[in-house]
Design brief:
It contains 33 helices and 8 strands. It is of the alpha+beta class and 666 residues long.
Length: 666
């Protein structure tokens, strides 16, 4: 296409995008799901079996609720064969804005650029701002840089145009998640945040862009971001605005963040301030990070300790050891001890050994296996401790210790300064650790096998010439149980192909293997809930059977069967999630089946959503997480099936290893 025609196309597209909107029309028929309806049950089965061919007729069905369900199913199935039906629905379903909005969402979920002309052609004539907002977001999921520039050029939306501004912010953010950014897009996000009277939902998603968009230069916007941050009073937006402000690296930005940390009550905002200190010089950040290492909230203390681990200096290594003795929380303490060893110079081997011996002496003094695992991570900063770590990994230990210890061995083997770290001893260390890697593959432990397989794929280590035979990898694959061990089986096959010089294959799509319990589904109603009982308090959840029926039924069945009782919270990431439900207790456990992902147009736009953990689309089973804060990068990728209605204070206190005493249906 020549430049003249390109400019004409862009100009026409901008006219479509800037056109005015009329009020949305009323619905004329209920779109509610009736699980007693045989056709709805059939549709659910089609969705579960991922049968696009059988779904297509329902996109043109005369009954509106069938068309609605079909569009919702298409968003989960993400099959390109469904695009024509969704386009037709978007064009012709003039009575139902919810169906058109859902069709736009589903097209975005499929992510194929062939949908762009449809959005361009229909935007101007579309009556509903809700649908237009859905189109703007969908463009961000399937468009390219020319469409991003179009979004960045929009200038007519006002604060009262909530659906349009939210859709615009979501669209630019979706581009960023696909590693597509532009100066114009970044400026538009800043302009949106400067809009007077902007609603919280839009502020939250626009602020998330500042936190997550890669390769953007925020330095020219320091003054604007400073004023936006100071004016913000809601932590959902403020926590990520803190990151955006820090990314400017300016003196004014640092001073504003420092002052805010001193008075901010919400630990999530404090956490993001400390997590963003890496954008400033060590001299600027050191004192604030030290104060934060003693923060009243353990997650902030952990983030501060990790700051020193990743940004500390050898001159201060001994000082970190002194500070570690003041830290009460075990995760933060071990992270700070890891900072001590990591920042001690290689040439000071006696000092490094002294510090790692201090940790080893404490290893058997705690009964908390998760604390022991954290100790192995800290000790691993001294590579010479690999024999001690291997002893714990291959002993009769808890899976969390085996997994964390194996990660530690893998990190030592792949360390960029491996030769420098071990000096003349490096060949011996190399051969011994390689022996542990092979032992891990032969162990039958899915986590250890996967971690070792990842090391073999490291092109810098040249295992293609180092391994005499690959038979042990093939034999390990044959011993795995599918679909339970799908993730590890794929990782090992990927390693085998890499070592044989074959091109990487796409991971196999998980097959249909676990029908939905329709009898139980009919007993669940909107508002069904559960109560999670922990030593730190109880958490009440509302479930969403109408939006994620297969997921809710699976979760409810496990709850009824007492599956979760006595299991641990195995993962807690500061200001992100608390995760549980793993039968192993390390995040690698599953059962002998998998369920399907269910992607309704729900958003992780607040704290307290419960979602399904997965190793990729359609691999969910038993593990779930609860969000600490808005996590929009999970939208449309991780099933939402409920939300906390009471007990978020407990969620924010949960730590790795905390016991899930019982979960009950309510």
């Amino acid at each position: 296409m020549n430049r003249k025609n390109l400019f004409i196309l862009l100009g026409i597209s901008i006219l479509f995008l800037l056109s005015s909107c009329r009020p949305s029309e009323p619905k004329t028929e209920s779109l509610a799901m009736d699980w007693a309806d045989p056709e709805i049950i059939k549709l659910l089965d089609i969705q579960d079996k991922r049968s696009a061919e059988d779904l297509i007729p329902f996109l043109n069905h005369e009954k509106a609720n069938y068309r609605y369900f079909a569009a919702n199913a298409a968003a989960s199935m993400q099959d390109k064969a469904l695009i024509p039906g969704l386009v037709k629905q978007l064009q012709n379903d003039t009575l139902y804005e919810d169906i058109r909005a859902l069709s736009a969402y589903a097209l975005g979920q499929i992510g194929d650029p062939s949908a762009i002309p449809t959005f361009t052609n229909l935007f101007r004539s579309e009556k509903s701002r809700k649908v237009q907002g859905a189109m703007l977001e969908a463009v961000g999921r399937c468009g390219d840089l020319p469409q991003l520039e179009l979004l960045g050029n929009i200038k007519t939306y006002q604060s009262q145009d909530t659906a349009l501004l939210t859709g615009l912010a979501r669209g630019i953010y979706r581009f960023a998640l696909r590693k597509k950014t532009s100066t114009l897009g970044t400026k538009k996000i800043i302009d949106i945040l400067l809009t007077p009277g902007l609603d919280l939902e839009t502020r939250t998603i626009a602020s998330a862009y500042l936190q997550r968009a890669k390769d953007i230069d925020l330095k020219p916007f320091e003054a604007s971001l400073n004023s936006i941050f100071i004016a913000e009073n809601n932590p959902n937006a403020k926590m990520n605005q803190a990151v955006g402000l820090a990314r400017t690296g300016g003196a004014q930005a640092f001073e504003t963040l420092r002052k805010t940390y001193e008075v901010e009550k919400d630990y999530r905002v404090r956490n993001n301030i400390i997590g963003s200190l890496k954008h400033f010089s060590y001299e600027q950040a050191k004192d604030l990070a030290l104060r934060a290492s003693l923060d009243t909230h353990p997650m902030v203390a952990l983030t501060a300790a990790n700051y020193f681990k990743n940004n500390g200096t050898s001159e201060d290594a001994g000082f970190y050891f002194e500070e570690a003795q003041k830290i009460k929380h075990w995760r933060a303490k071990q992270a700070m001890l890891g900072a001590v060893i990591k920042n001690t110079a290689y040439r000071s081997s006696r000092t490094r050994n002294f510090f790692s011996n201090k940790i080893k002496m404490q290893y058997d003094s705690t009964s908390n296996v998760y604390e022991q695992a954290a100790m192995l991570t800290a000790i691993a900063e001294n590579g010479f401790e690999f024999p001690f770590i291997a002893e714990k990994v291959f002993g009769n230990s808890h899976p969390a210790i085996r997994t964390t210890g194996m990660d530690a061995l893998a990190n030592i083997r792949q360390h960029k300064d491996f030769k420098r770290m071990f000096g003349t001893y490096y060949r011996i260390a190399e051969n011994k650790i390689d022996g542990f890697l092979k032992q891990a593959v032969n162990s039958g432990d899915v986590a250890m096998m996967d971690i070792a397989a990842g090391v073999y794929r490291n092109p810098d280590l040249d295992y293609k010439s180092r391994l005499d035979s690959l038979d042990f990898i093939s034999q390990a694959i044959n011993k795995l149980e599918l679909p339970r061990d799908t993730e590890t089986a794929y990782s090992l096959q990927k390693t085998l192909d890499f070592l044989n010089g074959k091109p990487e294959k796409e991971s196999a799509k998980p097959s249909y293997n676990h029908p939905i319990d329709m009898e139980l589904l009919t007993k669940l109603t909107e508002g069904s809930g559960v109560e999670i009982k922990t030593a730190k308090g109880n958490i009440q959840l509302e479930l969403y059977p109408d939006l994620a029926p297969g997921t809710v039924v699976n979760f409810a069945r496990l709850v009824i069967d007492g599956y979760y009782n006595g299991k641990n919270v195995h993962r807690v990431v500061p200001n992100f999630v608390a995760q549980g439900g793993c039968p192993r207790g390390d995040g690698w456990g599953s059962e002998s089946y998998s369920i399907r992902s269910e992607f309704s147009p729900l958003y992780y736009d607040d704290a307290g959503y419960i979602g399904m953990a997965s190793a990729g689309k359609d691999t969910e089973c038993a593990q779930w997480f609860i969000t600490h804060s808005p996590t929009p990068h999970l939208d449309g990728r991780y099933t939402i099936f409920g939300k906390v209605t009471n007990g978020m204070d407990v969620v924010h206190q949960l730590e790795i290893g905390d016991l899930i005493e019982q979960i009950e249906m309510k």
